[in-house]
Design goal:
6 helices; Rossmann fold; 5-stranded parallel β-sheet; 164 residues
Length: 164
């Protein structure tokens, strides 16, 4: 069984993330969505909220593809998380050249730590290239419409959070 790990903070999960998840399911038998616990980033949604949103959004994809999708919070090194979940592949989404430069460095470091784990890059679909969780949160915070960028339940969570 080939296990892949798709890591991120997913604060919040967007249509871009969901597209990468759906496409990653064509490459692996089991996909672990690694939800990073990064206290330095100060996420808008707490860990439990992010996990719940991801699980809800991924249920349809798991049913449609037959791929087991597991949501796994982690706070250690990415390569250690990959080992913990038995992943032989790390899946990363790329939107732009600037993403590639950062990811290229990460691949080199991860390979130095464990060269048995491969990294696969999936290019963002053209309609999702501009979507970034950071920008989605900013638009929502300022009262803009983010329904094009996130699923309805995530939009509702954003509206509720910023209504406070």
């Amino acid at each position: 069984m080939r296990t892949g790990l798709y890591p991120g903070t997913f604060d919040p999960i967007t249509h871009g993330h969901i597209d990468i998840i759906r496409r990653a399911c064509t490459l692996v038998d089991r996909l672990v969505i690694g939800v990073a616990i990064n206290r330095d980033k100060g996420p808008l949604f707490n860990l439990e909220e992010r996990v719940a949103m991801i699980e809800a959004e991924c249920a349809r994809t798991a049913n449609a593809t037959g791929v087991e999708i597991v949501v796994h919070p982690f706070e250690n090194l990415l390569i250690h998380c990959a080992r913990d979940v038995g992943a032989s592949v790390i899946v990363r989404g790329l939107r732009a050249v600037s993403d590639f430069e950062y990811e290229f460095q990460m691949v080199g470091m991860n390979r130095a730590l464990d060269n048995r784990v491969e990294t696969v890059f999936l290019m963002a679909d053209a309609k999702n290239q501009a979507i970034a969780s950071r920008l989605v949160k900013e638009i929502a915070r300022l009262g803009g419409d983010v329904t094009k960028f996130v699923p309805p339940a995530v939009n509702d969570a954003l509206v509720a959070r910023y209504a406070r």
